[in-house]
Amino acid sequence: MSQRGRQRELQEAAALERRRQRELQRRSRVFDVRRRTIGIDKDALDAQIKERKIQEATEKAEDEKLANEMKQNDKIMCLLEEQQKNDIRNINKAIGEFRKNFQKPETRREFDLYDPQALKKETPARLSDSDPRCSVSGLQKFMGEDLNYAQRMIFQKEQLREWSLQQQRDLRNALADKKRSDDLYDKDRLELDRKAVELQRADEETRRAICAATKDFNRAQAAELAERKKLEKYQTMKDDMAEISSLLQGDLLCENPEQAASSLGSHRVMTDRWKGMSRDQLMAIRNSQQQQILEKQRLKEEEHQRNAEWDRQRVQAARAELLLERQQQRQTQEWRRALDSVNAELSQEQKSKNMQLKEEEYSNVPTAEYYAQFNTTSR
Prior knowledge:
By secondary structure, the protein is mainly α. Helix content is 77%, strand content 2%.
């Protein structure tokens, strides 16, 4: 970690600590019953606004600095890209000139394989229909590729013309036959339509008679139904008046509180006749609810105090853990440096030992005189 990074971390930690201290002071003022006032904490808000402006100014300066650096880098990148494009263009141009002047297609060894004029230079594959080179396995002559192709095509066109004339004659005969069959079909259809009209007229007369009879029957049924509804309406009105009179004189609409008393005990009521609680019962319920609200506020205050104590302990633990981690990092770096120095010394000693062993091996190699003497003795 660089010196600038450590300084920045220390500044951030100091700013965080100042913010926590101000928050603790504000909590002590807000939750202190003797010093608490109705409204907002103007000093704390002013301090937050001032800190926010300082932070925004710092961020703006850093953003401007970063923007200037980005602009400078963009200019440099544009210049480098333009230079690279020019270099590539010049290299491609030089390669094209070299190929054009010193690597012509005619000078290549395999030019005969892709010569565009090779087919024009070669002998035709077939000189006549009886060319001995056109064997069955050579695949140089197929059906329809004979040399008298023009005369054969004239004959085939004349044959097609005759076939077309024959087809036209057959078509005219078929159309005449179709016209005769259509005339016969039209006559049959007109006869069937006439019979259908007569049947429809008879059906309509029958339906008209049935409708008249049905209408008379429906009139009689409607008159009977109207009389029955009139009697039912009169009976319903009579029953409704009796029911209304009974309800007006009963305990339900009179709201008699004694009708809700239950036979199972004085503390129980009949829900279908109960008209609500009395004033004393409502006051007892409201007093109980008020006590529950006060108890809930007291529990919330205790929980808030416990949370504040836990936050303070967590902050202290995090700070101690951060200091311990930094100390461990420094110890690790020192241990690594010591280990690197020991490894370097061991490597140097190993190299010196290897050099000594190689020198000893070279000194123990037999000389040419020794080999000559050994050869003479063996003979």
